[in-house]
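Feature request disguised as a bug: please show the residue count (349) next to Adenine DNA glycosylase in the output. Example input:
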Amino acid sequence: MDFKNKLTNWYSDNKRSLPWRNTKNPYYIWLSEIILQQTQVKQGLPYYEDFIKQYPTVFDLANASEEEVLKLWQGLGYYSRARNLHTTAKHVAFELDGRFPNNYKDLLKLKGVGDYTASAVASIAFNEVAAVVDGNVYRVLSRYYGIITPINSTDGIKEFKKLASNLIDKEQPATFNQAIMEFGATQCKPKNPNCTICPLNESCMALQKNMIEFLPVKLKKTKVKTRFFNFLVCIDNNKNTLLEKRTSKGIWQNLYQFPLIESNKSLSSEEFHLLNIKDSVLDNLNFDYSLYNIEDIVHKLSHQHLYTKFWIIETKELPKKSIAIKEIKKYPVPVLISSFIDAFNFNDL
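Example output, currently without the count:
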């Protein structure tokens, strides 16, 4: 029995029951694929269910505000996905009359949709023969065929796409694509896969050559940047605080945070006292301050490590742009800020 048949037979017996597998509705399939970019099923499933409940059609999602979408997305990370999700929903709803493009080529034109997502939606929703290549597929193919070409190189991307396209079952592309992705997610896992029960073990090159842990090969391209964040948690006698919206491109665009001062190193209380506060929210403000966390809270993003301190700023009265503390959880914020809000008891002050 060949690779293709073994894979689809395995899938028939072992596939997980997931809601987006019970539909051909392109909206649901597209939504699930966007959520599952950079996200495991276990984490993404509750978000998918929340989105479907709150926005059962693409028109509902399109008519929501970006702030509402970001709030519902809060905790999933890579927030550009949420912004692109909302942009595409509006495009489909208002310019395409609610109809998603029914082929790979046109799906690829949608904002936030790349080769993988276009292939997934085209094959699963419209049964187009379009091979998916995601992290799971790279892993399965590189191990089974013993391919050492780096998966994030130009040559690697072309090689694996061509191989996947040659292998795809042209009679049932949706089943094949889901089978190979599921196989990589639950059987041919990144670490410690159980090769003894693998239906492909007799012909797997990586297993034969003892290369399971070395494949797939990935080039290290990105240098991690270290940044030092000082968040100013301002509180006045009227139980108000300050939040600001990050409008510039980069991390957390259009999410809210406490006013921020970025420094070139981790600051002690004495060094914070000596800060130049001109043009910050502290300028012209009489206040007392204390440090919430002596040790930096390290928040790791894909290309950045944020060493963070939260400074509690107490003052008599904040500017008019302040918000009531009791309203703070209505705003979409990064996980780093959300975790602080959950841990810090504002009512004790």
